[in-house]
User: Which sequence fits this backbone?
């Protein structure tokens, strides 16, 4: 069985997230036990607990966004839980509108689009994810947008000389993942909003 580079990267992402989720969950359980026994309390425990919760939320998010995709269904409750956890204490809030379960491949595209929008909303805002008749729309809104047009041209299949760094890998993955589904990505921008359609 041959594996192309994009699928190999997704398999690596899945493996890393899978292997990290258990020890982070164990740390969280240990912190809860320490808290209940009264052996440790105060701002130190709170800081560690918040950090572990944030790491757990990021790994769950990344597992879907960067992991291997399939037609397996992900329930609305699971996606909402991931987005609520990742939004806690952060500058971005997420709203997931679809009421039904969605395929992992489609949720993956939505989360990759959300990660792209995150870079354009450095001062915070809201990311809304909508789906109607199989067509997805991901909207990023904030008072101050910071959009690198050259980087965003890569998302919609335009010519781009932007360098893709590890922090910006979603800009390379989103169009590739969309192409695998036979979809194209379209981006619209106003002063306070960026909208991604696929």
Assistant:
């Amino acid at each position: 069985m041959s594996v192309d580079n994009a699928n190999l990267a997704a398999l690596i992402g899945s493996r890393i997230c899978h292997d990290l989720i258990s020890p982070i969950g164990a740390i969280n359980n240990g912190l809860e036990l320490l808290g209940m026994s009264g052996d440790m309390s105060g701002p130190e425990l709170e800081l560690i607990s918040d950090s572990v919760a944030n790491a757990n939320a990021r790994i769950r998010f990344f597992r879907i966004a960067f992991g291997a995709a399939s037609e397996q269904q992900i329930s609305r409750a699971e996606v909402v839980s991931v987005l609520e956890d990742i939004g806690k204490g952060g500058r971005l809030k997420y709203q997931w509108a679809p009421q039904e379960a969605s395929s992992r491949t489609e949720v993956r595209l939505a989360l990759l689009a959300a990660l792209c929008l995150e870079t354009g909303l450095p001062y915070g805002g809201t990311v809304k994810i909508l789906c109607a008749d199989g067509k997805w729309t991901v909207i990023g809104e904030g008072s101050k947008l910071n959009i690198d047009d050259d980087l965003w041209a890569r998302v919609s299949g335009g010519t781009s000389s932007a360098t893709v760094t590890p922090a910006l890998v979603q800009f390379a993955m989103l169009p590739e993942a969309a192409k695998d589904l036979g979809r194209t990505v379209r981006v619209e921008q106003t002063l306070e909003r960026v909208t991604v359609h696929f």
